[in-house]
Amino acid sequence: MKLYQFDLAPSSNRVAIFLKETGIKVPTVQLNVRDGDQFKEPYNSLNPFHCVPFLELDNEIVISESVAICRFLEEINNASIKLFGTTSQERAIIEMWNRRLEIDGYLPLMNGIRNKYERYKGKVLSGTRNDLPQFPEIAEWGVESCRILFQRLNTHLRITTNVAGNTLSIADITGYEVVQRAISIEMNFDEFEEVKAWHEKLDRRFNSDE
Q1: Is the pLDDT of residue 209 over 80?
Q2: Are 177 and 103 found together in one domain?
Q3: 173-199 pLDDT, tens digit each
Q4: pTM of the predicted model, to two decimals?
Q5: Within 10 Å of residue 121's Cβ, how many Cβ atoms?
Q6: Which helix (DSSP H) or strand (DSSP E) does residue 173 occupy?
């Protein structure tokens, strides 16, 4: 089994945080996606979506998408720390929040970043190199979508320690990356005090050396 990563990529960071929190160990290969490693062989054949992370299994099956990778690793390792929940209700609530954070925050902001900054010219769609034009309006839409999400999340975090309950879950990891992307796109979210406090708590936890 081999995990292909690029540490600076948000999706790769989601997996890296998951591995740290669960203590699961996986042999890892770093691909420099900025230099286009993902378009070269053998990586092009392994993962035609040309995105990181992706996980190559011993039977030559390849799993891409960060959450799918994390779910698979948790299940096969029978990890004592369950970031996807331990009961049907917990799993459903975690899935609900994780999806909402992705749909209303992570994806709109990622699309916004790719349409706002010059460094993504020719890379508007992840895993591609083409002549699709950038549309700054998409960045504005992404910020407004996330603002609505933060309004709802701010209220929710007044009654719970973490997004999907009192225990850290994969939804918190996704949510952390949403806020990281909000910072990247220079979104002002000072009014969302609960979201800021929650993110600061996670930032200390995820970036500690312990």
Answers
A1: no
A2: yes
A3: 999 999 999 999 999 999 999 999 999
A4: 0.96
A5: 13
A6: helix 170-184
